[in-house]
Each structure stands twice: as structure tokens, then as C-alpha cells.
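INFO  loader      accepted 1 record
INFO  loader      residues=131
INFO  predictor   begin
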Amino acid sequence: MNRVIITGNLGAAPITNKTKSGISVCNLSVATNERVKQGTEWVDHTEWHQVVVFGGQAESCQKFLAKGSKVAVEGKLRTRKYTDKNNQERKSTEILADRVEFMSKANTQSAGSAPTPATHGPSNAYDEIPF
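INFO  predictor   done
INFO  writer      dumping C-alpha cells
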């Protein structure tokens, strides 16, 4: 089973693009934190996750999330290959979100625009990501 659930904070503002067929694709950078014991001391560890969101849910993420927003993401892991600017082949492991739940508003949002959870289903548009 390929299933992942994370809860964390956005490290940057969402980035949204459209596929050639007009489907919205939103990229989120989500940080999760944990405390681990190293010897006799507790040390904080931050792990960064790249999350890809599609369709109406992507548009909701762009509209209601900002750097610092707390989210819960449920989805599946996907690794893709791409060629970087230096013509080197690279791999990227991302979370393809089936569901993104907004757990807090970022400080930059107005109090009058309370987000509702975006729980749209997955899309088949992964092959059309414009990057």
C-alpha cells in the first residue's frame, strides 16, 4: 500500500500553474518536525516534503494558504525523473495529495476569509505537470 499522511507547516507560499489542458497544479513545500534523542540530548529534526495538489483543491490551496500555514496532507508517494538546467538527470520524490486539510490560517490572511477544508479527490493530470 502506498499511503502517506503528514502534518506540518508551509515553508513558502504555494506555487500554482496550469497544465496544457487547463488543470490547476499547486506545489507546496511542507516541513514536518520531530524531536529525537541523540545520546543524552533531545534534538529537533525538520524534514521537507514536496506536495503536488491538482484541480479545484489546488486552486483552494493557492487562495487560502500562505507561508506558515499548518496543513494535514494525505496522499501517495511518487518519484519522477527530470533533467535539470545543467542537463543532468535528477529524481524527485513527491507526495501526490488526495486530500489537503487546512489546519490554520497564515498570519497574512484576513480574518474575514476563513478557509474551508479542501477535500477534492485525486486527478489523473500528473503526466501533464508543466515543469
